[in-house]
């Protein structure tokens, strides 16, 4: 299972510092949606130039104009971009067309999708590289939230998937046992006193 750091920071400077601290322990470096909105495509280029050996993931959460938005992010240096599962099939197909042209990939983020299992199968058929079983920061803040629903959806969908939704050192083993291809970790790394150590411990937990 691959480990992905989600950098939900707001400046390119902070992202480069964080990426430098954790890169040796992760496979995929994600520029979070707030970072891309705050700093633009230039942040993608900066991270890819600093870490050319890593898979750079731009969490665009595109809802429309899939081909156009994916194209500009791939040109900026992204290896993977996210399109929302709630988007129209044509939006996802457009992004897949751009990915094929650049020899890169589309990840479909199932945040907010009620029937994640059915939609996962549909978007995989449209050409998604994998789907993201995702509960966002606002959903995580609701009373009683836990990861199990995401893990169950991943197990049932039988397509390649990542899991994002407050994954931490205690739960990353469950993510691996559920058969995820990628564990996405944001706050448990970037809010840690020592992000490098947090990433190292997460990596060791899934080795
Ligand atoms: O995608 C994310 C969220 O929508 C804010 O951009 C997070 O990066 C993702 O949820 C992973 O972060 P944690 O949930 O803090 O692990």
**Domains counted in the coordinates: how many?**
1
Provide the list of bound ligands, each named once. ligand LJD2ZHX5
The tally of beta strands, per DSSP, is 8
CATH topology: TIM Barrel
Calculate Rg over CA atoms. Answer: 16 Å
Strand content: 15-25%
Write out the strand line-up for the largest beta sheet, numbering strands in chain order.
1-2-3-4-5-6-7-8
Helix and strand run: EHEHHEHEHEHEHHEHEHH
Helix content: 40-55%
Low-confidence stretches: none
| CATH-level-2 architecture | Alpha-Beta Barrel
User: What gross morphology would you assign?
Assistant: globular
Q: What separation lies between the terminal Cα atoms?
A: 9 Å
Pathway: One-carbon metabolism; formaldehyde assimilation via RuMP pathway; D-fructose 6-phosphate from D-ribulose 5-phosphate and formaldehyde: step 1/2
Organism: Flexivirga endophytica
Enzyme class: lyase
Family: Belongs to the HPS/KGPDC family. HPS subfamily.
Task: Please describe the structure with a list of short key phrases separated by commas or semicolons.
single chain; 207 residues; alpha/beta; TIM Barrel; eight-stranded parallel barrel; 11 helices; binds ligand LJD2ZHX5
